[in-house]
Predict the structure.
Amino acid sequence: MAMETALSEVANQVAGSEELIEENIKNFLLVLSVSLSVATLPQVFSWFRKIPYTLLLVIAGLCLALVDVRLVNLSPGLILSIFLPPLLFEAAWNLKWKSLKKDLIPICLYAVLGVVISIVGIAYGLNWVLGLPLTTALLIGASLSATDPVSVTALFRELGVDKRLSTLMEGESLFNDGMAVVAFSFLVGLPLGTSQLGVQPLVLELIQVIGVGIGVGGMIGFGISYLTQRFDLPLVEQSLTLVSAYAAYLVTEDLGGSGVIGVVTTGLILGNFGSNIGMNPRTRVIVSEFWEFLAFFVNSIVFLLIGDQIRFAALGENLPTIAMTIAAMMGTRAIAVYGLSWFSNSTAKSDIKIPGQTILWWGGLRGSVSIALALSVPVVLELREDIIATVFGVVLFTLLVQGLTIQPLLKNLNLLGEQPQREAYTKLIARQAAMKRVLEYLGEVSDRPGVEPEFFRYQAALVKGELREIEDKINKLHREFPNLEAFTTQQLREELLAVEADTYAEFVQAGRLNRELAPLLDMGEAGH
């Protein structure tokens, strides 16, 4: 009898688990369906093309929240453990070390001192003006110290804004996510008695979490880099990058380090080193496209759910706190960006102009990391719900107000410059190269049996006509924008360096060289 009862309980548990899995799959498909529906809106209604895709998702989520339709409940584990690693890895994979190295000093200043200024400024404002408990004010400040400019940088790429601005924003975001998580973990431990207040404990913890993150991320990054040297299997190499992103995060967290730093380190190494020595050009394209899709996929879910999780009643109750937090956040952001930029310009000759600083200030949006940190505040702490409501309200402000006004601000500050013309020129050059290859191929297969010679002549005439039109457009751009000549020269030089680097990588992969050689063309340029 006891055996039958036990079997019955097991059967009920299995049935309950199956129902839960089925319900989660249905919810996931619902979220995905809504996200993809929003993605098609700009194709149907041209007006929506003015709004970045991620902000459209937030607005769609808000509409669902307004009619009290809740798709999935966000949790800190869902964001930090599942959604964050691929987003961090994709950004680090595409961030070129050569560009990052040039602006490493201002990026580190923004990411380290900027986080401290943000936390202290927000906490002081909330504690002094509104009388919030210092613990609560510090946790709000720590949650909102992590920037998430994904929608801004996507807009930069679309509008052809100077790549340096994107590097500064993405570099700061990648590094300050780790700093914000470390600071939050330390501050949340103060009222729980797991952290000690003092400079020495904080510095020791900072060294530990950053050191472990860099160490684990470096071992995984270099390990995967040398492993992919031994074979040429695009799907396996693509899968290894996915495994490395999650492994870097989980292993680093288990060892007491910063998972964010671990993932960023791994992504930077694989994107700048491993992809060159261990992957052929075709594999690099496959892996890059895979991560572009994954980032789109994850962002589609995250930004929709951010809007969907809004509780309008809670926002209304905490409106004064939200308003004060926004004012303090914008003020401290201005101090951090303008002050640290001045220091970097004076000491490191960074030459970050005031218009660029203004975009860095206004484009410092908050997003998924801030939400995750707020949701991870322990239930035992007082005013937890107020912290969550305040952070949600501020994140919503940055996404909708700052995110939707960044494009006109770019135009008013004349930061688009010649980038749109450069983008148009690059597309024409790519089109020209493609048509020339098509013409060459037509010449190679012109004697193929079963195809009329007239067909080949007709296709060749079409391609030649297209080439003439492209050449006319290129010449017109050069006449209208003489500065394109310098850009053309630089672009050709980069292409030559890429050809040289790919050749060295092929020799390394074939075992004919032990390590990749330094670019000879680069040294030749430096000699001049």
